[in-house]
């Protein structure tokens, strides 16, 4: 076994020990296939007000511009599929936001992985990224064999579905590289057919500016009236395209206590949501990613659903 193989195996084993669902590795290189796709997506204004998507265009496509002497991109996934879910007759928040903000949880684990690498392998330079501006995380995860990018544009696998976060460590260490897996969407169009706002404009292309996740989380202004009545009770994010995906029948509950919801969250009725006060908001979403919308943003979303 070569030293690169040995290091790669060590890193992957430690990632799983830390609770990551999967770990795959790619050479830190220019994302040649993604470049024209990203350019077209931006040209069609599919990023809506998500200005940050236009920034760092070159860095997004080449990790060597982000991290000095970058050699490898280590992609990791972390399951967030909850054991218990909200009932169907209430205003809904995306499952990824039930528990504590994933940024903190994942950063903690990535730090541990970096420490492990330093201890076991030696001085390795690198940077950790969690859903942070300039990394095309799904593209790297797919390149590293952690799943394929489905028609709903999320990463998924046959065994674990798609309810997981993606993060990366970009390091200046040569490792052995994984290969993409086969796309198993086949003739299925369940996600396209079920999307409440027809945001999946063609297979594999989501118009971000029509997506409920964008409206309820990213959009700062009023939600356009033409979408009134189309949100299917989603108040923060939207899981419809993932909920209907046949491969998510195989999702298994996560084992991360920090992702468990606040005890009051699952029992909130529509009436509770409509009457939510800032105090309740602070209590229930104290450490959750829902805080991103602030109280005023969540209120705007709920008022839009009434
Ligand atoms: S998250 Fe919801 S609105 Fe966005 S593409 Fe999926 S189903 Fe459509
Ligand atoms: S719902 Fe069907 S088309 Fe959509 S991602 Fe899942 S398998 Fe692919």
From TrEMBL:
Active site residues per record: 131
Binding site for [4Fe-4S] cluster 1: 185, 188, 191, 245
Catalyzed reaction equations: epoxyqueuosine(34) in tRNA + AH2 = queuosine(34) in tRNA + A + H2O
Keyword Iron-sulfur set for record: yes
Domain of life: Bacteria
Entry-linked PANTHER family: EPOXYQUEUOSINE REDUCTASE
Protein name: Epoxyqueuosine reductase
Native source species: Cellulophaga baltica
Name of encoding gene: queG
């Amino acid at each position: 076994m070569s030293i690169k193989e040995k290091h790669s195996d060590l890193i992957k084993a430690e990632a799983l020990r830390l609770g990551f669902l999967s770990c795959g590795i790619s050479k830190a290189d220019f994302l040649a296939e993604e470049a024209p796709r990203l350019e077209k997506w931006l040209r069609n204004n599919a990023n809506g007000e998500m200005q940050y998507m236009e920034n760092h265009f070159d860095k997004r496509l080449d990790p060597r511009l982000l991290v000095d002497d970058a050699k490898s991109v280590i992609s990791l996934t972390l399951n967030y599929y909850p054991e218990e879910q909200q009932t169907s007759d209430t205003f809904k928040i995306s499952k990824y936001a039930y528990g504590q903000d994933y940024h903190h949880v994942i950063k903690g684990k990535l730090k541990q992985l970096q420490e492990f690498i330093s201890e076991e392998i030696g001085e390795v330079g690198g940077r950790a990224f969690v859903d942070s501006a300039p990394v095309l995380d799904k593209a790297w995860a797919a390149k590293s064999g952690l799943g394929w990018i489905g028609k709903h544009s999320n990463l998924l696998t046959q065994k674990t579905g798609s309810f997981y976060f993606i993060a990366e460590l970009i390091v200046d260490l040569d490792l052995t590289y994984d290969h993409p897996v086969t796309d198993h969407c086949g003739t299925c169009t369940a996600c396209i057919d079920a999307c409440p706002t027809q945001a999946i404009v063609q297979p594999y292309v989501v118009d971000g500016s029509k997506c409920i996740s964008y409206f309820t989380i990213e959009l700062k202004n009023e939600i356009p009236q033409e979408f009134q009545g189309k949100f299917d009770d989603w108040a923060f994010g939207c899981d419809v395209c993932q909920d209907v995906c046949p491969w998510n029948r195989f999702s298994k509950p996560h084992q991360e206590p920090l992702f468990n919801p606040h005890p009051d969250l699952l029992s909130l009725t529509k009436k509770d949501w409509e009457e939510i006060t800032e105090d309740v908001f602070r209590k229930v979403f104290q450490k959750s990613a829902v805080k991103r919308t602030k109280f005023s943003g969540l209120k705007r979303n709920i008022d839009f659903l009434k």
